[in-house]
Each structure stands twice: as C-alpha cells, then as structure tokens.
Amino acid sequence: MRKKDGERAFSLLEVVVTLGVLTLLLLPLARTLNDGMAGVIRAKVTSEATALLQRAVEEIKQTDFDAVKSTPPVKYPTSDSAYYLQISAVDQPERESVDGAGIKTVTLTIFTDDGGSTGEKVAEIQFWLYRYDGL
Predict the structure, then answer these.
(1) Nearest-CA neighbor of 88 among 114, 102, 67, 69?
(2) pLDDT single digits (tens) 3-39
(3) Domain residue limits, the chain
(4) Which of 19, 6, 108 is nearest to 58 (CA)?
(5) pTM (2 decimals)?
(6) In the structure, what pLDDT confidence band is assigned to residue 102 with cuts at 50, 70 and 90?
(7) Whole-angstrom Cα distance, residue 106 to residue 131?
(8) Order of strands across the sheet with 71-77?
(9) CB burial of residue 76 (10 Å; 0-12, 13-18, 19+)
C-alpha cells in the first residue's frame, strides 16, 4: 500500500501485537465479571431459600404438635426457579416428662432439586418444637 505524503500507516504486525496486548489486559476483567455474576446468583438463591425457611417455620409453629411429621421433598416454585423443602420431624421421648410435655426435633432443608443425590443443599435450619399439656 502506498502512503501519501505525511501519512503514516500501521503495519499488520503492530495491529496484531496491539490486539494481543488488549486481549491479555481484558481477560482478567472478564473473569472478574463472571465471578461477580456467580456471586450475585448465589446470594439470590440463598436469600430466596432463607425466606422460604422463615415462612415454613412460621407455618409449623401454627400447626398442631401431633400433625408435624417428616415429609419427602415438596416443590416450592418461585418467580424464576423452584426449590424443594424437606421436613424431618423426630420425637424426643427421652426429653418428655410425666406432665404431658413433648419435644420434637424439626429439621427443614432446602434443595435446588428433588433432594436426590444431585440436589444441592441451599439452606437448613433445625429447631425444637415444644408442647406442654400441663397447667
């Protein structure tokens, strides 16, 4: 290619080297953005699962003591995904007293799928449910 008077052109080598340097500089930025988006998604999942756990605990507190039983994973859809809530309720007879008190250990677990071997546990809470039939 001919140059006109006073014009300077870039050689192909200069263009290729410049593009290589820019690529090397932008790769870490792309990874940082990717990691940031993954963190945002994890935070959203954790927040939704925690809200579901809070709602489930409030529902269990309003349920009759004897009606609280273990369940297989139950699907709870949200706006753009679905979670599965599994309830494990275990009577604690060694902690019961003669005055009619009863205690259950209740564990609520949130999974991202049906809770099978591929399910990722997102959140879990364990608490005691107490019944007192005395005075």
Answers:
(1) 69
(2) 666 677 889 999 999 999 999 999 988 899 999 999 9
(3) 12-131
(4) 108
(5) 0.68
(6) confident
(7) 13
(8) 71-77, 82-91, 102-111, 121-131
(9) middle
